[in-house]
Design goal:
This protein has about 140 residues and is of the alpha+beta class. Helices cover about 15% and strands about 40% of the residues.
């Protein structure tokens, strides 16, 4: 059975550069999709990255990818390390989400949710699309 991921930020194929691009090399894009949630931008010394919160009435734009067959444990561990999802105390936590594909249908996919409380430095992205926000603001993504 294929494992699906919903990527909404620096691991999106249209955003990924450097290390993030290498982490998703073995994953096949299924298509653009949305998921319920709220998304914010956060600045780091290495660029901007998004944080996703569950709930609310918003929709977050991203892409669904799949690992054909079994995803090697080291590949999943590398994604988790990149996202800071090492255990329950990490900055992010990997959880399932229902992703609605633009072409129709929906899949359950793993997504990385922010595992901290909201902070003042988080900038809301009202339209829910991190790639569009980068283009609108001229900001550089983390990893670039």
């Amino acid at each position: 059975m294929a494992r699906h991921f919903f990527f909404y930020g620096t691991l999106r194929h249209d955003v990924a550069q450097g290390l993030p691009a290498r982490l998703i090399e073995g994953l096949e894009p299924v298509g653009p999709a949305t998921a319920a949630g709220r998304i914010f931008a956060r600045r780091d010394s290495h660029g901007w990255y998004p944080v996703l919160f569950r709930g609310g009435i918003g929709r977050v734009r991203g892409i669904v990818c799949r690992a054909a067959g079994r995803l090697p444990g080291r590949a999943l561990a590398a994604l988790d390390r990149y996202e800071g999802a090492a255990g329950m105390g990490g900055e992010y936590v990997r959880r399932p989400v229902r992703a609605v594909l633009d072409g129709g249908g929906a899949v359950m996919a793993d997504a990385y949710f922010f595992n901290r409380t909201a902070r003042r430095e988080l900038l809301p992205i009202p339209h829910g699309d991190f790639a569009r926000w980068l283009a609108e603001t001229g900001s550089k993504p983390f990893g670039s």
